[in-house]
Amino acid sequence: MNIKTKYDIGQEVWFMWDNKPTCQKIAAMEVYVGEKVLPSYYVEPYEINPIKVVNSDIIPYNRRFHEFRIFPTKEELLKSL
């Protein structure tokens, strides 16, 4: 099975965070395969070790976004609002 995704790891994408347009690189992704194929993307900062995430009060680690909530440019993000 080949799964095509809209974005790649390392690519910069735009999304809303704290009511502000935000640009970050994609750090990881996961794909749910069921009746539909649903890709999700994690943006930086991303930490695979959950203990490090728990100890961070400042940086929101492991923010996950579904493909329909991220955009390749700020202009496309703003048009979607």
Structure in words:
By secondary structure, the chain is mainly beta. Helices cover 15% and strands 38% of the residues. A four-stranded antiparallel sheet has the order 1-2-3-4. Strand 2 (20-33) and strand 3 (37-43) form a beta hairpin. The longest helix is centred in the C-terminal third of the chain and has 7 residues, at 74-80. The N and C termini lie far apart (34 Å).
Main sheet: strand order: 1-2-3-4
Mean pLDDT equals 86
Determine the fraction of residues in helical runs and give it as a percent range: 10-25%
Unreliable spans? none
End-to-end C-alpha gap: 34 Å
What Rg is obtained from the alpha carbons, in whole angstroms? 14 Å
- What's the total count of β strands? 4
Main sheet record: 4 strands, antiparallel
Q: Proportion of β residues?
A: 35-45%
- Overall geometry comes to globular
Q: Report the order of strands and helices.
A: EEEHEH
- Which structural class is indicated by helix and strand composition? mainly beta
Q: Number of helix segments?
A: 2
Question: What descriptors fit this protein?
Answer:
four-stranded antiparallel β-sheet
Short overview:
Helix content is 15%, strand content 38%. It has 2 helices and 4 strands. It has helices spanning 50-54, 74-80; strands at residues 12-17, 20-33, 37-43, 63-66.
Topology (SSEs and partners):
Blueprint: E1 12-17, E2 20-33, E3 37-43, H1 50-54, E4 63-66, H2 74-80
Antiparallel strand pairs: 1-2, 2-3, 3-4
